[in-house]
């Protein structure tokens, strides 16, 4: 009773009943060590508690003898039995969920408890000649990724030889911008878009679209030209004051909007249901495959970078993402593999982890999302390629898996993925006190993988199988306190990462300059416009690279805006034979017949003083698509001749020359 009152006086004033105690005899019966029941013993051996786990071994620092001495201790005197006092205070921790003694300090392990555990093990070894298989216990097991041993030695890379492809830049000698562009979007793709758009329009609304291949070319050319010459709204391109004749001469405003809402790249009814469930972007998949085919046809360099790209879109779409740190935070995520020059080699739209699992090998399934993206985009790269990526993709397991495929990863890494290397690197506080440009390097025992920590404005962690700290160089960095650039030393891995990692950012920047960003609610149209921009940016980067190899003067190399404008005018001027003219003439007649009751745009007739200046009124030939009725009263003919000054259509043939009569 004295003991109980003393124990409870140290806690709260309210009396707390003590939990039931077990003697050693009862404990042995519960453990099954007396009646010889093996099944009970194996069930209890799964417990993770060191007091009840009969297979538990004390930590190495607490053992006083080696394994050889433990084996020879069977012949020594047994450990003395616990006293009556110890029996009275012995508790079964599993009965009260690990609660301690009455004083509240039972969670600490005393040497007496370890001796009792050893006694239980000695009794079990005497009763049974065969030890049961120990159950799964997490005690003493190393954490995931702690199998590598790190040491402060330099990296000794063992890399496979990269085999360069035959350079084909000379094969592109004399190429025009259209030739570069047709690597990605050719006439076959335009014909497929024309056929699918006509079929889908007729099946959905019953109203034929009657578009042609040339008109699809003109539509894309108009969209590209609108991205180079920006107006607040699309309707302004057909206004009187700001109209652009290169666009308005090809189609009316209503025709442009109808084409924009009717463009299709496949017939929906031909797509099976299982493909629709498996591929979230099936509505634009033929267009994406053609762009991807052009990207994969480019030469594979020795160095490539992998990063994520956002396709800006805030409307409803199958797989929309939000990345707050991106310039366009809301949209569709696209993983891109590009060269250091920014030329896209491969891409894969994010549809979830399940879609990536279907595209990688079986041993790569457990790599995580970043590792799966690396495995997918490295499939088209050659053996011995050096791949650069950011910390979203980098992990020790992923780097080791890519090494088996002879793909060598370099990138930043999160500190929680470094396992045992994090404790051996210099701490942030130590590096900050040492000063800027401090670096620390660790490598594995075989020297094939290294981790470098460099302190600039903040500590930077990097992992590589190619580059280490040496050879260091110097670079200029901005100092906020001194308000000037200072010279700091920089490890080799940082220099190479900065040189090779910016390819995806470069293509993103080129696309953002003149993006086809007309407002639309259709995610399919946004995808078509984005990947057309990607094809244009890729074409210009390849064009500039080819001319730089040929040592062409810089003044002769078109800038990106000039390249896009040239491509727009080329597409707007596409004309492939008389068949297209026949289609357009039929389309114009049908539109006139269908729009008889609609209000038409009427050009104001100039004053008579303007009309009779004979030296200023020159005829202008107009395309057949824009042909209109003669403006002279009583004439029913159609003409393609327009007065440059008066901007009215007039006949030049027939019994009466309306053009002459109008101006006299």
UniProtKB/TrEMBL annotation:
Entry-linked Pfam families: DDE_Tnp_1_7 (PF13843)
Annotated Acidic residues bias: 37-51, 65-78, 583-593
Superkingdom field: Eukaryota
Chain intervals for the UniProt region annotation (Disordered): 1-150, 579-598
InterPro entries named in the record: PGBD
Domain PiggyBac transposable element-derived protein intervals: 176-540
Designated name of the protein: PiggyBac transposable element-derived protein 3-like
